[in-house]
Amino acid sequence: MTEFAVKAGAGSNLIIENLPTASPILRIKSDEEPLSPNRFELDEYEAQARRVRAAREAVAFYVNYAAQERATASHESLVNLMAQRLRTHGAVPKANRYVDLSARYAGVDYLFEMKSTTEDNSHSQIRRGISQLYEYRYIQNIPAAKLVLVIENPLPRKVGWLENYLVQDRDVLLVWDGNGSFTCPESVSTALPFLN
C-alpha cells in the first residue's frame, strides 16, 4: 500500500506531500464536474454543468477526436510523461474525457493539451490544440489557468514562427518532448517550474 501525507496549506487548501510517482492520473468521469473548483460551492458546479450542456456539440466533437488521438502511443506517452513530472513535484494530475491533463501547482492552475506531431501536420495540430485549450479553459471556468501545448517534436523550421505566435501573442506555453524530458523556450521554463 502506498502512503502519502496531506497537510493544511494557506486558507482552506490541502497540500499532498510525498505523492508516489506511480499514482495514476485522477480521471474525472463527469464532464460537468469542474477539474479545478475555486470555491467548492454548489453554484460553481451548477454553472459548470450549464457551460458543458451549452457546448455539448463542440465537446462531443473533441471527445471523439481526442479518443482517436489518445489511441496513439505517442500521445499517451506525452500525457504519462507530463503526469509523472507533475506527480514528482507533488501535483495531482487530473483528466476527463476531453481534457488531456490538468493540475494545480503552487496555487496556479494548468491545462495541458498534448499533440502528436510530424513535419507535415505540425501547423494543423497546433491550431487544433490552441482552440481546444481556450475552449477547455472557458468550459472549466478557470480563466486564469495557464495553457500548455505539449507537442511530440520540436517545431519544423517552416513553421518555426509559431513559437513566437504561441508564447508571445497567444500566451500559450509551448513544450516538446526532448527524448523523454521536456524542452521549451527559455521564456516558458520560468512559467513551468515543475519541468525543472
Index terms:
single chain; two-stranded antiparallel sheet; Trna Endonuclease, Chain: A, domain 1; about 200 residues; alpha/beta
Could you describe the 3D structure shown?
By secondary structure, this protein is an alpha/beta fold. It has one domain: Trna Endonuclease, Chain: A, domain 1. It has helices spanning 42-54, 56-70, 73-88, 122-139, 162-169, 186-189; strands spanning 5-8, 14-17, 26-27, 94-95, 101-105, 108-115, 146-151, 172-177, 182-183. The strands form three sheets. It has a five-stranded mixed beta sheet. A hairpin with a 5-residue loop joins strand 1 (5-8) and strand 2 (14-17). The radius of gyration is 17 Å and the shape is globular. It starts with a strand and ends in a 7-residue tail after the last helix. The mean pLDDT is 84.
Give the topology, please.
Blueprint: E1 5-8, E2 14-17, E3 26-27, H1 42-54, H2 56-70, H3 73-88, E4 94-95, E5 101-105, E6 108-115, H4 122-139, E7 146-151, H5 162-169, E8 172-177, E9 182-183, H6 186-189
Parallel strand pairs: 3-4, 6-7, 7-8
Antiparallel strand pairs: 1-2, 5-6, 8-9
In short:
38% of the residues lie in helices and 20% in strands.
First-to-last CA distance: 29 Å
Number of strands: 9
Largest sheet geometry = 5 strands, mixed
* Low-pLDDT stretches: none
Q: What is the CATH topology descriptor? A: Trna Endonuclease, Chain: A, domain 1
CATH architecture term: 3-Layer(aba) Sandwich
Mean pLDDT: 84
Radius of gyration: 17 Å
Helical fraction equals: 25-40%
Note the beta-strand portion. 15-25%
User: What is the approximate shape?
Assistant: globular
Structural class: alpha/beta
- The CATH class is identified as Alpha Beta
How many separate helices?
6
Strand order of the largest sheet: 5-6-7-8-9
Number of domains: 1
Q: What are the secondary-structure elements, in order, as H or E? A: EEEHHHEEEHEHEEH
